[in-house]
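Session log. Operator J.P. requested a structure for one protein chain; no other inputs attached. Running the standard single-chain path with token output.
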Amino acid sequence: MLCSRKRVLFSLVACIVVALASTAEAQKWRQVTEKTKLAVGDKVQVNWHGEWVDGTIEQIDATFNRVRVKFMRPGTHRHEMTWPFGRENLRIQNKVRRTVKGNPFESASDNPFESAKGFRTWEDDSGKFKIEAELVEVKGNSVRLKKRDDEILTVPLDRLSAKDQQLIARFQGRVEEEEDDDEEESDESDDKTQFLDELTAKPAQWDGVTIVYLSQDVDSSALTPDGGVEKRDLTSQPVLLPPKETFFDRVGGMYSAADAPECVLFPFAKLNEHGKPTRFVLCNLTRGKTSTRVLKFPVGAVAVDIGPSGKQVLSLPNGFGFGNKKRVDVWHVEGRDLRHEFGWKPYDQGGGRMQHEQDVEWTAFVDAEHVATLSQSGRLVVWKIPEVKAVYELAIVRSSKPALSPGGKYLAALTSAGLVALDAKTGDVKGFYPKAGDRGTVAFRPDGKQIALVSSKRLQVWEFAGGKLYRDIGIGIGPSRSDAVAWPAANYILVGGRYLVDLERYCTLWDYTGATGASSIGRVFWCLVDSRDQVALVRQPLPHKGIEETASKLPPEAWKGIEPGATVSLEVSVTATAAEQRKIRETFEQQLRERGIKIAPNQPFKLVVSTSIGETETIAYEKSRGFFPVPIPRFRGPSSELRIISFQKQISSVAFVINGESAWEEVVVVGAPSSVQLREGETAEQAVKKHERPNIAFFDGVQIPAYVAAPREDASFGASVLTPNGLRPGKVEPRKPKTPSDSNIQPADLQA
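Structure written below.
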């Protein structure tokens, strides 16, 4: 018994010693904040996947809040490595103090503090006048310089050369007032983490909201194109954005201010972090005045748009899962200061709504006094701000993406009745565009003269004024990122972020890789080029020089396929009743006639409507309460209630075939049901086999295109890689039409 007491006492003492040691160790370190002064050589701790590890600072970039630290990677494979960290993942010893933010690792020419404080050559914006002088101070919009004869000159900041202006901007962000070495530094004021939910949310006002009802009897001929502001003084040089903080750091797009398109917002967020601090970059693209500002949001917010003046920013929660994106917030930006103005929860109306129905899928500024929001359930609402009063609501196709015209006058969206254009402020229906597909992303041409609807298999373009359908193109390659749509030039659309579709020749002309985003800003086309640890904004006209001439020299047989005026054979071979077969044939005969395509037997061009049997899959089902056999994991052990059942996949397809090769195809594959309910006297095998039949209802929803390019071995006529230093040759990928094995597979019991 005595021995047992000694052991207990020893254990208590050991626990106390360990706790005191841990507390003492924690007190030696403090969190690095924006006001913490760092220097190369400082001993720090870094947060490496949740574990604090000792390291040494090797390089500092205070402008971009990035610190490179050398440390020993913990774990099984220990080795020394250098990695960039944000300040939120750094701790420094309490007694370390610095007087000047600088970086001894940089050369004097690279360090703005060292470069600006000594005598150097200053140049004016014309390049004609130069003086040798030392920087005295920056006051307001002027710079005071001291010449070697001690004469003091005051020069307006905007009269300096672009290089000197950038130096001053960096100098201002890097120099701080010196402190007394005996004064203990405190970061308590910077350690206040502000959570998004702590910010006040105004109640949404729904009184008097107008519900928009659609009618196809709309005269679109009176519409005038609403192009964006054209800017001719934008820089032609690549603009480097702040380096990534981690491997998972990504730029979430680019958004330009409607009235000041030279002001562009770039939100940064980490793919592996939700509810954590995010940052965004504001960039001025004006020639000779290019600059970037880095601002940080409170926890859980990510920037999604910028106001017309460039001084307001919209944000959504950086949450994950249903119910974590309910609110929208408006922020005011002045210089490097970010202030919360107000927020609201647009779809949190109570009444027992599902969590996902309250989440905000998309939001954008209409103008300085209106904001549009879209719920995941397809409720498009425009709000008057700052009152957050709902002006009008429109039900649109779920998972489709609306678009504002470049000038912000019109809001276009896909509805169950078709594609419509509304007065963005009032909700009045101004334009209706017939024969629209049942899904896709809406996009405007930069000059506002055309409007497009793009999905993974179809691209449609209408004249904005008048509503005439200009092109209805089948996209044979089926890009996975069909929501990434950009319009670089009048006759070309960039689909999936890489495939340049030639509208005149209705084919994929070129394949551009290397860009993570693309957009027209100030009627100029820009691409985001994302390298391993750096992101650059590159001014890159597409198609690039010489490609249009190459396209004009292509022989017609290289791209010309099915188009209005062509003749095709209609072949229907489906496993269905005679009445169903007749209905299917009549449906596609009518579609071909509406598109101006003739029908005749034995043609090299064919429209093939068919059903077929796919591969056999084996599914394990187990009887559950209520007699529902359900699929179970393969690693489950044997059971008297276990049934192993074979199921043959059923394929339904509609395809344009040119000279024996599929040029465009819509396919659905019926897979084994996820669950079935047994009727009295019915076996599990019988219940599953009832679903072993093709999806005939699929044919009712297929809309064929009017233009289909001739199939080729390659996916495009050429390829290029976008880099910060321009274009370099790329590798042309082979065309890979989808096969039933990688097409749209649906469990039989979940089909419409």
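Operator note: The chain is about 10% helix and 40% strand.
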